[in-house]
Specification:
- The structure holds 2 protein chains of 2 kinds.
- Chain A is rod-shaped and about 155 Å long.
- By secondary structure, chain A is α+β, with helices and mostly antiparallel strands.
- Among the domains of chain A are: about 150 residues, Beta-Lactamase (2-Layer Sandwich); about 170 residues, 2-Layer Sandwich (Heat Shock Protein 90), CATH 3.30.565.
- The longest helix of chain A is centred in the N-terminal third of the chain and has 67 residues.
- The C terminus of chain A is likely disordered.
- Chain B starts with 13 loop residues before the first strand and ends in a 5-residue tail after the last strand.
- Chain B is built from 8 helices and 12 strands.
- Classes of the chains: A alpha+beta, B alpha/beta.
- The interface between A and B is medium-sized, with 34 and 24 residues.
């Protein structure tokens, strides 16, 4: 496409053309209105003057007779720029005036008419136009008074010329302005297109130029930049995941392979083979779990799990998870407690339950009090893990508090990342994905996972936006009660 | 392990496996035959549909992604024709919403790949029993253990047992499938209604609490751990 072709194809240029047509139409109608009114005004002025002169002449005729009228007319007819005068006898003979010839029949009809005439002293061939009034005097004499319309014609000519020029100016200015605007827009669009091409070619760090005017193109560029930001973050996340997968899944895979190899090389008895195979299955189950968790995180982060959102009570989730994990905690020498107040949530119940379960599992695993000699009472407190659900303003807080060693402030952000297992926990089993999943689930619901200090210990809180009003499901349950009783 | 059979005394089942991957299909057929079931094989959706319509099967095991006709549409056709044969869907898509999609399409259970054969077997056996099994009884009995579902009363011999509500539901599920293996995932799904995979042995702890209530102090244990698979409630002598 040629540069010009591109230019005239722009929206700006096309819009300019439309405006141009509109303005031309406007100018034409304005001038037309002006011309028509001017013409009317001139005609009116002429007829007023002529009417006045006619009645004056009739007056003179009635007082001074035909002779007086003739004298007056002759004297007036000789003035420069004079009106047209003609007095005829009943037989049509001209006896006074400055009109040489007239279109036939004009003198015959009384009243207003537009006609062609020639002056008495005019030697040219040309006929002029005039507006005339003919009246019959007594005795059959007829009087004509009129005015040349040259003035009106000239006026019309001026207006027509003005119209031509103004249309020309509008067209030139319009096309020029259109090209100017279109080129300006085109330059910016071309800059954007160039950047997007670079981005498509793989340079995700590129950003569109944003001007300072805050116009629609700037807003568009800002939005596109925000989108690019998100895409880049997702891509970075993806790359990180694949790096982590490569790194962290290869370890158990290597272990798996080594064991199989070792069993092949050394095992003699069926029991030895069997135990080697059992460990292989265990190891691969662990791998599958890790894969599932990773997939779940990826889906939560990409927002794909959004489809299954329902209204439910956070307290139910807290109580459910408490019920599920309470025996496990007790077996581990901990005490799991719950404090839940009804708090409506809208979201994926399964995912939020799992996120909370992960936090509880972490608390049970890592929340054991430091092995310092403590008083009996302090020891009882420090074995407690609290699950809490409550509403705070327009947020629902689901938190798990332990009295363990906590996570140093500097490491908290790091702890949420995938596969991160803080130094202190390296020796315990786990995939290192629990907090990442909890965090991804919170983000999916428009909330966040916050880790803070419980002095001593760790508070892991899922901050989620509260659902408006009472969840439908809860309302339905309340409504169910009398039915069940009946 | 050697002493405990992987399966309970469940009668022979006729299974149709609809799976296009030759190796996994052969493995399944062989594995089902080894534990005493009859397993037929169809390797694409159309063949599977034709066989399911003509053969009298107890359970269909259907892969979701099949050539010629996908698994969900196959189930849809069967259900539209009023065929209520239990279907277990096998799928590499293991996420929560895929499972819901599968169950909505008319599947009775959903198992993501990769799976343990013990898990598949346990689920298929439970499905099959549901198919031809007796109507829901009011009182479940295993040996001298009795559970009354209406009065929520549990007794072993002459001793009345006090169970927490969740322990009651756990025992109820186990007894409903007495003589069958139920896996940890099945318990988590059916007793707790969670479909995620806890990283810890949380179910084992609940089982051991239940066991201490129903088996402790009695000569003959009823609640058995089936290694590598799950749990089974059963009167040891039968």
């Amino acid at each position: 496409m040629t540069a010009f072709g591109k230019l005239i194809r722009t929206t700006a240029f096309r819009l300019t053309l439309v405006y141009l047509a509109l303005f031309a139409l406007f100018a034409a109608s304005l001038l037309g209105y002006f011309a028509w009114n001017t013409r009317r005004l001139i005609t009116e002025q002429i007829s007023t003057t002529v009417t006045a002169e006619i009645s004056e002449m009739i007056d003179i005729y009635s007082r001074r007779g035909l002779h007086g009228l003739g004298l007056t007319i002759e004297s007036r007819a000789l003035r420069p720029g004079a009106n047209l005068y003609l007095v005829t006898t009943p037989t049509g003979q001209a006896i006074a005036g400055n009109v040489g010839s007239l279109a036939p029949g004009v003198m015959g009809s009384s009243g207003w008419s537009e006609t062609f005439y020639r002056r008495f002293d005019d030697r040219g061939e040309e006929n002029h136009r005039a507006l005339v009034y003919v009246t019959q005097l007594s005795n059959g004499f007829r009087l004509l008074i009129g005015r040349d319309l040259e003035e009106r014609r000239r006026m019309f000519g001026i207006v027509a010329k003005a119209a031509q020029w103004s249309v020309l100016v509008v067209v030139v200015l319009g096309i020029g302005g259109g090209i100017f605007v279109a080129r300006r827009v085109l330059r910016r669009i071309d800059a954007m297109t160039g950047t997007t091409r670079r981005i498509m070619a793989g340079d995700l760090s590129g950003r569109l130029p944003v001007g300072r005017s805050g116009d629609e193109l700037d807003r568009l560029a800002e939005n596109l930049n925000a989108m690019l930001e998100r895409i880049e973050a997702l891509m970075t996340g993806l790359k990180e995941v694949s790096d982590n997968i490569a790194h962290d899944l290869k370890t158990p895979l290597t272990r798996l392979r080594n064991r199989a190899e070792e069993a092949l090389a050394k095992s003699r008895t069926e029991g030895e083979y069997r135990s080697a195979l059992e460990r292989t299955i265990e190891e691969s189950d662990g791998l599958i779990r890790t894969f599932n968790a990773l997939l779940m995180i990826a889906r939560a982060e990409s927002g794909q799990a959004r489809g299954d959102m329902v209204d439910f009570d956070a307290a139910e989730v807290a109580n459910g998870i408490h019920e599920l994990y309470e025996p496990l905690a007790e077996d581990d020498g901990m005490v799991l407690r719950v404090k839940a107040v009804a708090a409506p949530l809208h979201g994926n119940r399964e995912l939020i339950s799992q996120a909370l379960a992960n936090l509880v599992e972490n608390a049970i695993k890592y929340g054991k009090p430091a092995a310092l000699p403590l008083g009996a009472e302090a020891a009882a407190v420090s074995k407690e893990i609290w699950i809490e659900a409550r509403r705070q303003g327009d947020q629902v807080l689901l938190s798990v508090t332990d009295r363990g060693p906590g996570i140093p402030e500097t490491e908290r952000k790091h702890a949420v990342e995938r596969f991160v297992r803080l130094e202190a926990s390296r020796t315990l089993p786990g995939s290192g994905l629990g907090l990442s999943l909890a965090s991804a689930v919170a983000t999916l619901h428009g909330g966040e996972l916050r880790l803070s200090d419980a002095n001593p210990g760790l508070v892991a809180t899922l901050l989620l936006p509260a659902a408006a009003g009472l969840p439908a499901r809860l309302a339905a349950q309340t409504a169910d009660v009398p039915q069940k009783a009946a | 392990m050697e002493a405990e059979p992987v399966t309970g005394p469940v009668s022979e089942m006729r299974l149709l496996i609809i799976e296009d991957d030759r190796e996994s299909a052969d493995y399944l057929v062989k594995a089902f035959r080894e534990v005493g079931h009859i397993a037929d094989l169809a390797s694409d959706g159309e063949e599977g549909l034709a066989m399911a319509e003509t053969g009298d099967y107890d359970v269909l095991v259907v892969d979701r992604m099949l050539p010629k006709r996908d698994g969900l549409s196959l189930i849809g056709v069967l259900r539209d024709k009023g065929d209520r044969t239990p279907v277990l869907i096998l799928s590499a898509l293991g996420q929560v919403d895929d499972r819901i999609k599968g169950l909505r399409a008319g599947g009775d259970d959903y198992l993501p790949k990769p799976y343990a054969f013990a898990e598949l077997l346990a689920r298929v056996e439970v499905l099959s029993r549901r198919h031809g099994g007796p109507a829901e009884e009011t009182v479940y009995r295993v040996g001298d253990l009795e559970l009354d579902r209406l009065s929520h009363r549990v007794a072993r011999g002459k001793d009345e047992l006090t169970l927490q509500p969740r322990e009651f539901r756990l025992l109820e599920y186990l007894m409903k499938h007495a003589g069958q293996v139920v896996t940890r995932t099945m318990l988590l799904e059916n007793v707790w209604d969670y479909h995620f995979d806890p990283q810890t042995n949380v179910i084992d702890v609940h089982i051991s609490r239940l066991r201490s209530k129903i088996d402790k102090g009695f000569e003959r244990p009823l609640l058995h751990t089936i290694r590598g698979a799950g749990y089974m409630i059963r009167d040891g002598l039968r």
